[in-house]
């Protein structure tokens, strides 16, 4: 039996019942036979990025984060848009990884589930390609009017979104 590829799931939302968290849960369920999924569930506990703490003085939680990224065969980030950009907690986590090779050549799928979300998707792609992630043309998914796209069970049901999600997953 071939070993399942490991996918690390990162949400940009800390909200209880978050749309983006529900989407990641849905992904973990929908593709469970193909991949082994791990959730990164502590980015709101990361200290603010500080170059003085980079390197030898790096907090354990940050070392663990980088290790989780390195161990993953691929990563999916799903995030809301906040004031035309990505949420601060997500940007903070990425800043910790900039001076490392944790994300270098890592296949990445990016999802923005928001009211509109176009800017966040553009920024996230720019940021993550800058740190040398591999994002395929079909590795990006924008879910606009996100709250209305999940049913009561937290499932995506729109056939166009599901098709785009299947294509995104295939890029990983
Ligand atoms: C502080 C704040 C700023 C927001 N700014 C934007 C925005 O600029 N563009 C947008 O499309 N949605 C914006 N939203 C709406 C969220 O992106 C949207 O509610 C999203 O579905 C929340 O995702 P979540 O349920 O996973 O937290 C904002 C929400 C908050 C709380």
Short structural summary:
With 172 residues, this protein is an alpha/beta fold. The chain is built from 5 helices and 5 strands, in the order βαβαβαβαβα.
Main features:
5-stranded parallel β-sheet, 172 residues, 5 strands, alpha/beta, 18% strand, binds flavin mononucleotide
Explain the overall architecture.
This protein is an alpha/beta fold and 172 residues long. The protein is built from five helices and five strands; from the N terminus they run βαβαβαβαβα. Residues 13, 15, 18-20, 80-84, 113-117, 146-147 line the site of flavin mononucleotide (FMN).
Please give the order of strands in the largest beta sheet: 2-1-3-4-5
Structural class: alpha/beta
Sheet-strand content, in percent, reads 15-25%
- Bound chemical compounds: flavin mononucleotide
Helix coverage percent: 25-40%
Largest sheet: 5 strands, parallel
Mean pLDDT level? 96
pLDDT under 50 segments (min length 5)?
A: none
Strand elements, count: 5
User: Gap between N and C termini, in Å?
Assistant: 19 Å
- The Rg value, from CA coordinates, equals 15 Å
3D shape: globular
